[in-house]
């Protein structure tokens, strides 16, 4: 029985190894595979119950919002229809205020409108018994 103990030159050991050792990678992948095989059945177990069978029907519970626009001249528009005076506005708002649930009033005031014109609309909403009044604005442009 003969054994060769490096009779060649030392240049053989100085060469760069160009192969990748994949043994640690395979070890890690096998450990991960075992962990997943153990944990998946634990996660999928739940308490067995019989759930009720019911069809879901969407309900229309929110009424149409009232959109009031106030121009820079102080004219009031109800969904693009002109409202001639404050009393007519109050009367129209009273008919809407009795609906269940009560719709919201969205006020779109012109940038150049006088505060008094917007105030008359808010006062009309208050006199009619409207609970929610919102002001519609635009977001400033991004710079």
TrEMBL record:
Pfam families from the xrefs?
ExbD
Localization: Cell membrane
List, in alphabetical order, the GO biological process terms annotated in this UniProt record.
protein transport
Q: Which UniProt keywords apply?
A: Cell membrane, Membrane, Protein transport, Transmembrane, Transmembrane helix, Transport
Highest rank taxon of the organism: Bacteria
> Which GO terms of the cellular component aspect does the record hold?
plasma membrane
Any one Gene Ontology MF annotation carried by this entry is:
transmembrane transporter activity
Bilayer-crossing regions = 25-43
The membrane topology term of the UniProt record is: Single-pass membrane protein; Single-pass type II membrane protein
Q: Which PANTHER family match?
A: EXBD MEMBRANE COMPONENT OF PMF-DRIVEN MACROMOLECULE IMPORT SYSTEM (PTHR30558), TOL-PAL SYSTEM PROTEIN TOLR (PTHR30558:SF7)
Family in the record: Belongs to the ExbD/TolR family.
Q: What is this protein called?
A: Biopolymer transporter ExbD
Identify the species of origin: Ralstonia chuxiongensis
Phylogenetic classification of the source organism:
Bacteria, Pseudomonadati, Pseudomonadota, Betaproteobacteria, Burkholderiales
């Amino acid at each position: 029985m003969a054994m060769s103990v490096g009779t060649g030159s030392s240049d053989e050991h100085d060469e760069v190894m160009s192969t990748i050792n994949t043994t640690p990678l395979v070890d890690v992948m096998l450990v991960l595979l075992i962990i997943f095989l153990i944990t998946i059945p634990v996660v999928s177990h739940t308490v067995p119950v019989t759930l009720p069978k019911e069809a879901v029907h969407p309900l229309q519970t929110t009424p149409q919002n009232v959109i009031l626009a106030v121009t820079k001249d102080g004219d009031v528009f109800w969904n693009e229809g002109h409202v001639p005076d404050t009393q007519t506005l109050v009367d129209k708002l009273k008919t809407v205020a009795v609906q269940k649930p009560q719709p919201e009033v969205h006020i779109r005031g012109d940038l150049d409108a006088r505060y008094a014109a917007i105030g008359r609309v808010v006062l009309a909403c208050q006199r009619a018994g409207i609970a929610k009044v919102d002001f519609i604005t635009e977001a400033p442009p991004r710079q």
